[in-house]
Amino acid sequence: MSSGSPARVRRIPYGGRPKYVKLSPGDDGEFLADVFFEDPRTFSPKPGPLGQIHAWGLYPYFSEDPELNSNSGEVDEETLNLAASDGMQSMMRQMKAQMMYYKNRPEDQFMKVILERKRQQLKDMDLKQLDKCDVMVKITMTGMRNKITKESRVWRQFKVSAGITLSAFQDKVVAPIMGWVRNFHCYTFTDFRDGALFGPESSASVDSMHIAQVGYAYLPDNKYKLAHLFGKEGDQIGYLYDFGDKWQHHIEILKIYSPEESTGKIEIIDGKGMCPGENMNGNLEYADFLDKYDRASYTEKAAQKREVLETPNYKSFGKPPSLFDPAVFDIKAARERLSEALSSSASVRSGAKTFNIPMMPGGEAILDDITSGHLKKGQTSTKQHADDGPGYWRETTSNTKDSRKEAVCASCGKPAGPDVELKTCSGCRMVLYCSAEHQKVHWKASHKKQCTRNHTPQEKSS
Ligand SMILES: [Zn+2]
Ligand SMILES: [Zn+2]
To answer: Among 82, 122, 212, 308, whose Cα sits 20 to 30 Å from the Cα of 259?
Structure first.
């Protein structure tokens, strides 16, 4: 979330001489965020009012904005706890740096040290068997509460193994359970204990250009597990979806099960509220949208309903809800999205979904050629034409099985691990299972129709 105030005239810290990073001659540090004048080797990020560190601790918090803070009652403490990057300042800085630096901008010099520090710490981290434990989690959309009852308007509760790789967690669990589109916008997970960020490696999402507003850099989320981001029950993990809209969520660890009690099976328990529409401008605007809906007349409600149903997660990539009520969580639909995601290949982040409108005759064919030139082995470029107008969606998909690191059982979602070996379906060699039993269950439920070779699951699998 960027604060609405324009870039203020400010005093450049340390007379424009940073403690560690090197500015190119001619760069006076104008618009460079204050934090980059510090020494990253000794930098100690400051927590927000709820004791959580957001976005590596690079930005001030909303609570430090006198204007927002004085509006007490209007802005809740979850929102005041968020990092407030100055969108205008970061945009001005980006333009300036583009002209002065070919590479290794001061921001990059600083983040390189910060990332390396965290990488080392993760290498030495003792997970204390947490990755062998299932956890009950609750994901809540931050600061989106009913004005009167103060209850969170959009949340989901589910059980998952903490041994799941963060990339698979986002792609096959969080996105489908919430109701967001898979492989569309960029995202980060935050370890609130130190503000460390994790996100998709080589993401091609259009919104990833706004990275200077959400933390500048992150560690690759396909190398770390959910268990790396928390230590005990009650801990929270941040989840930011879409660097443009900045949909803020927090994931609370409600319960940690012992390894003996853990099965690895993903189970959706409960929830509330429809997922907002993609591109509906983030938590605060959607909260206003819901407040307006509460008070709206019948015709106004119908117009708002159309607005939601026109968004990609309801129109192009999901079923419109059978009952339109922003307060309702359709658990059956969420379970269907989850099982579909579990039995599919992992998203190809370098080929994220984009919406294209051909600008000239033959434009689509030209783009087809360019895209196929960039495809790696085992990848396909898929297109989905809109039913109205000339636009179409393009995405790169994988037609090979997932890497061992990121794979989960296509039936239950149990992740592969040091003591968990997943077996490949011998028919299609695409999906993996934690047990012969789950292979049978999945075969009967859906895989019989999807498997490229119509074989019986009892056949030898390797
Ligand atoms: Zn299984
Ligand atoms: Zn198969």
So the answer is: 122
